[in-house]
Design goal:
Layout lengths: L12 H10 L6 H7 L3 H6 L7 H22 L5 H12 L1 H10 L10 H5 L6 H18 L11 H35 L7 H9 L8 E9 L6 E8 L2 E8 L2 H23 L1
Antiparallel strand pairs: 1-2, 2-3
Helix pairs in contact: 2-8, 4-5, 4-8, 4-9, 6-8, 8-9, 10-11
Length: 269
């Protein structure tokens, strides 16, 4: 995997700001830039390498760091609880949330087409880039020479050195973000599948057949329809919302219903 050899002065202001926000100074700016390089940019600029291999490594590193943290800090939690929390913390939506806090999108290297199509705000691209950055940190801690990145000997020598120090650095980089996300998760505020969360909440007191999602309206042209979906409990409308698809409208309505139920619960308390 050939990598560009660059100096710190080659970084854009957005990339320098991102590195500062990570609180980690890369010894190899080229490795940092590789983590920010989307496939579309590499294709348009005839580069051999982009960030997808780093993303593969970063995904595994992230899951290990989060698992270790939960195992260490949540001594009373059972396996199922930790698994559910980990899934919330490492999912695309959570990583995109961290990326947005870091203003990662502004630092990405995207192809012109992907950029104009809103790639800097696309959750999948942001989350993938964050995972790639974690892998880049992991490797950079070992001081891998960009000119010898393809060398098996360099990788084999670096990995043992990286494992402990690299994971420690990454844990430090992620710590403030994971702490905030963990608090949200434990308070039941970190929800991305609102429909499932609502059904789980309602089924504590009601039978599943008492809960129904119904289409209330469909409007707009055939090529861009808008759906209005409602959530009913014993034929009583709990909430309704619009969406470009039935599923997105159901999720939006479920979110409204969840927020209202929680607000009512807080008023009672």
């Amino acid at each position: 995997m050939a990598m560009e050899c660059m100096d710190r002065q080659d970084l854009t202001d957005a990339q320098k700001k991102l590195m500062g926000s990570l609180n980690y100074s890369f010894r190899s700016p080229g490795l940092f830039l590789l983590a920010l390089t989307h496939r579309s940019y590499a294709y348009e600029n005839n580069l051999r390498a982009h960030n997808e291999r780093l993303e593969f490594l970063g995904d595994a590193i992230l899951e290990f760091v989060v698992s270790q943290r939960l195992y260490r800090d949540r001594m009373t939690f059972e396996e199922g609880q930790m698994t559910k929390l980990r899934a919330l913390l490492v999912c695309e939506e959570s990583l995109a949330q961290i990326s947005e806090t870091l203003s990662l999108g502004a630092a990405l290297r995207l192809g012109k087409g992907e950029d104009s199509a809103g790639g800097r705000q696309r959750k999948s691209i942001l989350s993938d880039a964050l995972e790639a950055i974690l892998a880049a940190i992991y490797l950079d801690v070992a001081g891998i020479d960009p000119d010898h990145f393809d060398s098996n000997e360099a990788i084999d020598t670096a990995m043992p050195l990286t494992h402990t120090r690299g994971l420690s650095v990454i844990s430090g980089v992620l710590s403030p973000f994971l702490e905030d996300l963990l608090k949200q998760a434990l308070n039941g505020e970190l929800v991305y599948d609102y429909k499932t969360a609502l059904l789980e909440l309602l089924q504590r007191k009601h039978r599943i057949e008492q809960i129904q999602f119904k289409m209330l309206d469909r409007r707009g042209p055939d090529h861009a329809p808008v759906f209005e979906m409602g959530i009913f409990l014993d034929d009583k409308l709990l909430a309704k919302a619009l969406g470009c698809g039935k599923k997105s409208a159901e999720q939006a309505a479920a979110k409204i219903a969840l927020e209202e139920i929680r607000a009512q619960s807080n008023r009672v308390e």
